[in-house]
Amino acid sequence: MTTMTRARGSATSRRISAGRLLVLILAIGQPVSSLAFDLLSPTELQGGADFSPIVPPGPMFSIWGLIIVASIFWSLLQARPSVQDSPLRDRLVAPNSALYVGFFLWLSAAAVGQQSPLTLVVFVLIVGANLVAWARISQGREEIAGWRRIDRVALYLSQGVYAGWTSMAFFVNVATVVQGSGAPIEGGWGTTWQILVIAAAAGTAVLFLVVSRGSIWYAAIASYALVGATISTAVAGFGALSVALVSGLVIIAVTTIAVRRRLGPVVPR
Fold first, then answer.
1. ∠ CA(93), CA(117), CA(55), 5° rounding?
2. Which end of the chain is more exposed for a tag (fewer CB within 10 A), N or C?
3. Per-10-residue mean pLDDT for the chain, 269 residues long?
4. Using one digit for the tens of pLDDT, what is the confidence trace for 61-79?
């Protein structure tokens, strides 16, 4: 190996390490961003039927605690020197960096107003980053099969809960923005547009389940979000929306079973 080759390899190694370190810093920045929002934001995040029919009750948003802890745990594991040689971990740097930056940007947009269209722009980034990450995980299943169990579990947990909640939250956000623009939530038109939003959420869940090869974590958290929305619609007396949400839950369950039977999980657990 020539001196130039060694220098090039060393520079590549430094870039890889820097990328993984960035993921860790951004992951840790999520609770910092959340604290800053609580202290400095002129608005408060709202939940439940009193705010919008398909927004889950406020206490259910505590799932963010699991999401953030899981992402930090994965970020710590992927930054270990002992796993430096890992193409898949390197390929996850970009989508996960975008994901964690998206969390900060979403809080910033929500500070302007929870019904601000800016929140939707950020959610597109978050959902897109989740899709890219899961596509790369599925493509790298042979490498993952050789990882330690703790690394596999941390990866699936982190990506599954993040994608499960945010992909459904995107459509909850769509509903709040449309409602904030003046659209009715009662009557024929009000029921119709909200059912269309629920249908789009269910369709997105199917897409994620196919791409993730039937991730159990994704299915569980996406279902959790729809259960929360179902509770809110039932409390508010929106029976048709409750039926649509239960149908979405059935679709997620059936799709998960079908995909796992046909394709199998990402890698054997």
1. 85
2. N
3. 44 67 96 84 68 87 95 96 92 96 90 80 95 96 95 97 96 89 86 95 97 96 96 93 96 96 64
4. 999 999 999 999 999 999 9
Cβ atoms of 209 and 257 closer than 8 Å: no
CA 93 to CA 112: how far, in whole Å? Answer: 29
Torsion of CA 76, 163, 245, 63, to 10 degrees: 20
CA 71 to CA 159: how far, in whole Å?
Answer: 8
Of 262, 242, 252, 223, residue with least CA distance to 60? 223
Q: Are 169 and 61 contacting, i.e. CB atoms less than 8 angstroms apart?
A: no
Whose tokens are 């709202």? That residue is 46
User: Residue 37 CB: number of other CB atoms within 10 A?
Assistant: 18
- For 10, how many CA atoms within 13 A lie in the half-sphere containing its CB? 7
Q: Residue 144's closest CA among 196, 65, 77, 193?
A: 77
Total number of residues shown for the chain: 269
Per DSSP, the three-state class of 113 is: coil
DSSP output for 160-189:
HHHHHHHHHHHHHHHHHHHHHTT--SSHHH
pTM: 0.89
Residues 175-209: tens digit of each pLDDT: 988 988 888 888 889 899 999 999 999 999 999 99
- Smallest CA-to-CA distance from 75 within 147, 33, 21, 125 is with 21
**Region for residue 46 given its phi and psi (left: phi exceeds 0; alpha: psi -120 to 50; beta: otherwise):** beta
Measured distance CA(179)–CA(267) in Å, rounded? 42
- Residues 24 and 252: their CA atoms lie apart, in Å, by 32
